[in-house]
Design a protein that fits this description.
The complex is a heterodimer. Chain A is of the alpha/beta class. Chain A folds into three domains: 7-173, Rossmann fold; 182-216, no CATH class; 217-330, Up-down Bundle (Zinc Finger, Delta Prime, domain 3). Helices cover 50% and strands 7% of the residues of chain A. Chain A has helices spanning 17-28, 46-58, 73-79, 100-110, 132-143, 163-166, 179-190, 196-202, 207-215, 218-233, 239-246, 251-271, 283-290, 295-310, 318-330; strands at 35-39, 86-89, 120-124, 149-154, 170-173. Chain A has a five-stranded parallel beta sheet with strand order 2-3-4-1-5, sandwiched between helices. In chain A, helix 4 (100-110) links the parallel strand 2 and strand 3. Chain B is an alpha+beta fold. Chain B folds into three domains: 2-114, Roll (DNA Polymerase III, Chain A, domain 2), CATH 3.10.150; 125-246, DNA Polymerase III, subunit A, domain 2 (DNA Polymerase III, Chain A, domain 2); 254-361, DNA Polymerase III, Chain A, domain 2, CATH 3.10.150.10. Chain B is built from six helices and 25 strands. Chain B has helices at 7-18, 71-80, 131-141, 197-206, 260-271, 321-330, and strands at residues 2-6, 32-38, 41-47, 51-58, 60-61, 65-70, 86-91, 95-100, 103-108, 125-130, 156-162, 165-171, 175-182, 191-196, 213-218, 222-227, 230-235, 254-259, 280-286, 289-295, 301-307, 315-320, 335-340, 347-351, 357-361. In chain B, the strands form four sheets. Chain B has an eight-stranded antiparallel beta sheet. In chain B, strands 14-11-12-13-25-24-23-18 form an eight-stranded antiparallel beta sheet. In chain B, helix 1 (7-18) runs antiparallel to helix 2 and helix 5 (260-271) runs antiparallel to helix 6. Chain B is elongated and about 80 Å long. Classes of the chains: A alpha/beta, B alpha+beta. Chain B: Forms a ring-shaped head-to-tail homodimer around DNA.
């Protein structure tokens, strides 16, 4: 998820204590579920949690709070990614699906005894990348794995998983932490160098995602997109040219910023000053704009943006899709 | 740190462990062998996380060191050096330099600490058999193991040890092969372990047809075979093998004796025109005569007949010819005995002279 190497410092994120405690208690009572599904928005540290949990299952010298020690042979092998009882299943290339061969190879090996005599841990991440055939071939193992096996599925889009997978796992849902906790954590990492309130608001309260935004020049990109949207609205720039520029950007964030902007406009139009908005630094501009736009057209555009979000990664011509969306935006003020 | 040895000393151990190293590894370090040098000896270990092979070679060295080297490259280097060549290793943390005559190779090293070798765990059972005996058991049964079945406990070979017997059983749900032998094992209660398919094939390659002893250690997670300098460790399949005794027909009432070679040849001929997918062959058994019939979807037909030793009612039964031929391949006697009861019950095939190996084949509905 993030470039930060959180896994290796063996620290639990401050907002994950509850889930950790619940799982630790379950383990102490010998009632650890064999299949876990970690859900919740992107950037909440689910992956970090999964890796810590796996490490603590494999560690031979677990500390009192259930954390891995980071020093025994098992922990060393986990850090070197060579632990024989740990399997990480991810797509071969980011954004691609997890194929059936990978799952088949894993189920073959999964039936063997563990090397150390303890737990075997498997992380599948992101679980929604499993293609249909792969998901189906996993069902049998997911339902009845051999003893002392824990399979951890991580996903930010639980809805994209087949119901047959979801129903075989115990779900642990992660919520965005309190703003105070998130702000403090973020401030420690960024040393006050950025507008944490804005970052958190843009990332829907997910601290790790905020951190990513702070590092990768994402804010500048968003600012430019808002400028361009305003220019299209004022008819001072050409939607076709801008669609061409946007088609070279990361489509996920394009759709995200664009729909965030439209949603904010709707909110401001309805609730005016009291509206809770995402782009908190743009309130004045949004208010000025909201007086000139047509609600019906705004809602129609929002629906089309949700549709675009759903078909991300499908075989659509990106530029044509963006042109059509931006042309709709250009006419947003027409009664 | 310097290690000195000869090519011939090193080549055989490397070839032995090299078979375990997979061509496509999931983890980069599995392409390497772990080398531990101490006291005039190096131990070489290779693993694919399922099986581990460990062997040793004589060397000269001035201390103790653990490191890992790329297995295939090291083997290729040793192979291509002239016979009787001396080899010198200079090991440091990042690189290892290999010198021999006027050749020089620099290989990358991965840290030995990251190598997932199997810790010797306390074995709960320990016994000794001859290599020949174990090799025979494997050869007689391994063909019946399932291949990538969802019933994962069938993808291997059951070893059952107890009451002065060692028994190997393999089944894929359609046929079963069982072979047993007496051996002096003072083991009161029987133990059962399932060896994964890969370990069985690797072990068969390793064993020789000799009276040499092989030590077997069984722990809850692993089984280890030690032959002289070499030891071979495998994980076990974590499951329960089905109750195979129930599968073996208890009291079949019809008994057919046939010459093994003639039957095999007749089956091979008839199988040419059997359905390529299902490979079904019809057996028509009557007093003294066996007729074989096969036909394929193109309506082509094959017929063959042979004399057999049989007295009794007529019986028509279908079999997968592939299963039969595989059984006839491993039976050694001149004649085989087929025990049957009716066309829906399974058939027991045995060597006429001894019943140490038993083969059960389910019939096909034709």
């Amino acid at each position: 998820m993030t470039e930060l190497n959180l896994i290796k410092d063996y620290k639990l994120l401050p907002w994950q204590m509850d889930q950790w405690q619940r799982l630790y208690d379950a383990k102490q009572r010998g009632r650890l579920p064999h299949a876990l599904l970690l859900t919740g928005g992107a950037g909440l540290g689910k992956s970090h949690f999964a890796h810590l949990l796996a490490a603590s299952l494999l560690c031979t010298d677990v500390q009192d709070n259930g954390m891995p020690c980071g020093a025994c042979k098992a922990c060393r092998l986990v850090q070197a990614d060579t632990h024989p009882d740990f399997t990480l299943i991810t797509p071969e290339e980011p954004g691609k699906g997890i194929k059936i061969d990978v799952i088949r190879a894993f189920t073959q090996r999964g039936s063997l005894t563990s090397q150390s005599g303890g737990y075997k841990a498997i992380i599948i991440e992101p679980a929604d990348a499993l293609n249909t055939a792969a998901a189906n071939s996993l069902l049998k193992t997911l339902e009845e794995p051999v003893d002392r096996t824990v399979m951890i599925l991580v996903t930010a889009n639980a809805g994209r998983l087949p119901a047959t997978i979801r129903s075989r796992c115990q779900q642990y849902h992660f919520m965005p932490p309190d703003t105070a906790i998130a702000t403090e954590w973020l401030n420690n990492r960024l040393e006050g160098a950025a507008d944490t309130a804005l970052l958190l608001s843009l990332a829907s309260g997910a601290p790790l995602l905020s951190l990513e935004y702070a590092h990768d020049g994402v804010l500048a990109e968003r600012a430019q997109m808002i400028q361009e949207l305003t220019a299209i609205f004022k008819k001072t720039d050409d939607p076709i040219g801008i669609a061409q520029r946007w088609s070279n950007l990361d489509q996920k964030s394009v759709v995200k910023w664009f729909s965030g902007w439209v949603i904010d406009l709707i909110r401001v139009k309805i609730a005016s000053e009291s509206a809770a908005i995402i782009n908190i630094d743009q309130r004045e501009r949004l208010q000025a704009l909201s007086r000139k736009v047509n609600s019906k057209r705004l809602y129609a555009l929002m629906d089309r943006l949700f549709e675009a979000n759903r078909t991300l990664g499908a075989q659509l011509n990106t530029q044509m899709q963006l042109e059509s969306l931006l042309l709709d935006w250009a006419d947003i003020g027409v009664e | 740190m310097k290690i000195v040895t000869t090519r011939d000393n090193l080549l055989k151990p490397l070839q032995q462990v090299g078979g375990v190293v997979e061509r496509r590894q999931t983890l980069p370090i599995l392409a390497n062998v772990l080398i531990n040098a101490a006291n005039g000896k190096i131990n070489i270990t290779a693993t694919d996380l399922e099986v581990e092979m460990k062997t040793s070679a004589a060397i000269e060295c001035d201390g103790e060191i653990d490191f890992t080297l790329p297995a295939r490259k090291l083997l290729d280097i040793c192979k291509s050096l002239p016979e009787d060549a001396n080899i010198e290793f200079n090991v440091d943390n990042e690189r290892t330099v290999i010198r021999s005559g006027r050749s020089r190779f620099t290989l990358g090293v991965l840290p030995a600490n990251d190598y997932p070798s199997i810790e010797p765990s306390a074995s709960s059972h320990r016994f000794t058999v001859t290599q020949k005996l174990l090799k025979r058991l494997i050869e007689k049964t391994q063909f019946a193991m399932a291949l990538q079945d969802v019933r994962y406990y069938l993808n291997g070979l059951l070893l059952e040890i107890g009451n002065g017997m060692i028994r190997a059983v393999a089944t894929d749900g359609h046929r079963l092969a069982l072979s047993e032998a007496e051996c002096a094992i003072d083991q009161e209660s029987g133990i059962q372990v399932i060896l994964p398919r890969k370990a069985v094939l690797e072990l068969a390659r390793l064993l020789a047809d000799t009276e040499d002893q092989i030590d077997i250690d069984v722990s809850s997670n692993h089984i280890r075979f030690s032959l002289g300098e070499t030891s071979f460790t495998s994980k076990l399949i974590d499951g329960k093998f089905p109750d195979y005794q129930r599968v073996i027909p208890a009291n079949p009432d019809k008994e057919v004796l046939a010459n093994r070679d003639i039957l095999k040849q007749a089956l091979t001929r008839t199988s040419i025109l059997s359905n390529e997918k299902y490979r079904g062959i019809r057996f028509q058994i009557s007093s003294g005569l066996l007729q074989l019939l096969a036909h394929n979807p193109e309506q082509e037909e094959a017929e063959d007949e042979m004399e057999i030793d049989y007295q009794g009612d007529e019986l028509v039964i279908g079999f997968n010819v592939g299963y039969l031929i595989e059984v006839l391949n491993v039976i050694e006697s001149e004649n085989v005995r087929m025990s049957l009861s009716d066309s829906n019950s399974s058939c027991l095939i045995q060597n006429v002279a001894s019943d140490e190996s038993r083969y059960v084949i389910m019939p096909m509905r034709l």
